[in-house]
Amino acid sequence: MGQSDVNEAGLGRRRFLTLAGAGLLAAGTVAATSGRALAVSPVGRDPFTLGVASGDALTDRVVIWTRLAPEPLDPSSRFGMGDLTEVPVRWRLAKTESHLGAPSRWIASGAAVAVADNGFSVHVDVAGLDAGRHYFYEFEVDGPDGTVLRSPVGRTHTAFAADDDRTARFAVVTCQNVARADGGEFYFHGHDHLAGREDIDFVVFLGDYFYEFGRAAHVPPREISSLDDYRTRYGQYRLRDSLREVHRRFPVYVMPDDHEFFNDYRGGDLTGVGQIRRFNRALQALWENMPLRNGHPGPLGDTKNHLALYRRIAWGTNLDLYLTDVRQYRGTSLLGNAQTDDLLDWLRTTTATWTALATPTPIWWNGGNNGWNGFTGVRDRVTAVLEERKAATPATFNPVVLSGDIHCGIVTHVRRFRDHSSPFVATEFINAPMTSQTSNHFLPDDEIRGAYNGRYGYMECTAEPTGWKVRYVVGDQTDDPNGTATGQPPWHLDAGDAPGTVYQPVHQKA
Asked: How crowded is the C-beta side of 339, counted as CA atoms within 13 Å?
């Protein structure tokens, strides 16, 4: 049988998680229950309205998550939990969905306590798993009159082993907004498409999972600031069927940008107690609502909390992916010293076929100053290592950059310096937004190989032994509940080629 770890220890000196090995402990939200009986606190209505999720998959473990909220948009009733302060939650995991009904076939099982102070969220780090395979899981709580209330069945996937040369395929999602400026709603047709796929290994949420500003279609319809406000906003977005289904079917890796907190916040130089308190509440809500391995961010108060979010995702021989946190440390530097050192060390030492740097804001030199281009020091250090590593090992070092934020899908390149004369050091794929709009219009030129103006959806990335592919899955009907998103012709990179050689098969290699 497998095991689960629920532990509030820190992550130690290295703040990123190497998502390929064993032995990391989860920093959990729930109390382990081995060796003691749980008092029964029955829940009167279905508490699993927000579904289930899994995330931060390693080769031998994965975090499974749920949050009890019979009324996820009603903070006045404590989201339907009333006077309850803690609720026992049982969980189980098996290799097939049918095995969940047979206790002898469970790979791991246990119980946890969902507590009010943590939004009745449950995070369980299930260990002792096999690499590179699907697992199925579910939760249950006691209902009234001896009934049992069960969650939807979730499906997850462990990371490929270090020597597994299978193709890795994943989706990138950014900038999803439900509230139009005219009072109407946007529709997640990209998630409609993604939720039905069988060939995706995992999903990366790379910033602006929701928006904090006030609009008529938002709940509440004003800019949010309290902990209950943030909990409600997460509830509103997670009630979208297709988004909830994506979480149910795929493990996710979550990296926030600014709007999960407040617009353009700079975590390294928050000013005043009010900003610090608001940041802490938003960070608490992020942790409560996502399947994160990292521990509880800390007590709410006047001292700034922290959640270790930058991390490495090693997925077999073909993919090594690093998620950068461009918000929590932003002040005089973009990433902070520790994250910068980790990132540079990773770039110098990774041996996967494809080295993918995922960052919420573009490194592309013309991508504005709201990110890397406003911090030329760290940008120059990163691009220098990219150039040096490619020159030293041109056949085996294949870098790509994945980003978002600017609300347009763009295929471009990272130049060594911020000018047209600098050499290319990586190809950058800027994600199309799920729904967020922009008035900018980008045209192909020497910098831009392709642009998806007015198209919304997600980005599919494929890492193969001989090539890298990106397909934009997009549509233009975010105002239409019956709209669709469709896959566009993919962009290709061939392993061993020089930066700047991205092409579509229908065109000559650039």
From this structure: 21
Backbone angles phi, psi at 144, to 5 degrees: -70, 150
Asked if residue 14 belongs to a domain, the reply is: no
Cis check: omega of the bond before 297, within 30 degrees of 0: no
Contact 412, 448 (CB under 8 A): yes
Residue type, 51: G
Q: Is residue 201 part of a domain?
A: yes
- Report the domain count for the chain: 1
- Do 434 and 174 contact (CB within 8 A), yes or no? yes
Instruction: With 0.90 as the threshold, say if the pTM is over it.
Output: yes
Distance CA 226, CA 309 (A): 22
pLDDT at 44: 76
Report the number of secondary-structure helices (H) and strands (E) in the chain.
Answer: 6, 24
Q: Which residue has the tokens 């918000």?
A: 327
Tokens coding 23? 């032995």
CA-derived radius of gyration, the chain = 22
Percent of the chain residues past pLDDT 70, beyond the cut: 91
Strands (E) located in 464-508: 467-475, 486-487, 491-494
